[in-house]
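With this grant's support, we have settled on a layout for protein records. One resulting record is reproduced below.
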Amino acid sequence: MLDPRKLHLLRELAARGTIAAVAEAVMFTPSAVSQQLSALEREAGVPLLERTGRRVSLTPAGHLLVEHAQAVLEQLDRAAAALSAARGGPSGPLRIGAFPTAARVLLPSALAALTAGHPGLEPMVAEIDPADVSAALRAGELDVALVHDYDFVPPVTDAAVGTEPLFAEPVYLTGRRSLAEARDDAWITGKPGTLCHLMTIRACQAAGFEPRVRHHVDDFDTVLAFAAAGQGVALVPHLAATAPPAGVTLTPLPLSRRTLAAFRRGHGGHPGVRAAIAAFRTAFRAAAADLPPAR
């Protein structure tokens, strides 16, 4: 019989690409991961990996098994969620990931409601970039997370991760009335590799120019402070701009940032995850009552 723990390692190899990355994610040594995968090959009775020097790739049989492994691991999560529901109300640790704006603006009230309504729960929050959430969910480091995506930046899909839309918010341009007016300005963006940075670059490209980036800043409070100091223009989502510094003008653009709850497929029915999502929705309604519904 195939061992689900070994199937998890094979799925992580397919997602991460190297045994070293899998070992780091699951806190094993690379040799231990290799041994477990070799044992899985023996259990499967067919080669699952192709080894060329230090490089490892999946065979067609390996890719096929990953598809089935996803279904098996998802069903095991469903079984765990059902057993948790049978034990009664949500209880125990609940590991929540959130991007900084959500952690600052929305989570305090959501956590207060969550612990008041479910005193047996122990929420544990970690700030995380949305780009890192899928890996953290697959590895079991998080139970549920708040993530976002932008227009011009297609969401990254992961067969192991499910999402529920929560709400959408407009994106503002600081200091100018349109992107065309900001063509020759210095720009403040997130660090390269972040969704915020990519959204800014692509929005400017769609307007017909490449932005001249002067500052790379991820914290939107700092972005707004830099804008107030005349250090450039920026694109800032609504929740990050509810109290802009004096002198900063905000022009809404036909751009949106969408916030979603993310969880492992099969784990979305867990009582703790459902309670957290309900608390998120309540907090979002209070903080963003004037915003359009999620789409």
Q: What stands out?
A: The longest strand covers residues 250-264. The chain has a mean pLDDT of 88. Strands lie at 49-52, 55-58, 92-98, 121-127, 144-150, 161-174, 186-189, 212-216, 235-237, 250-264. The chain has three domains: 4-84, 92-165+258-287, 170-256.
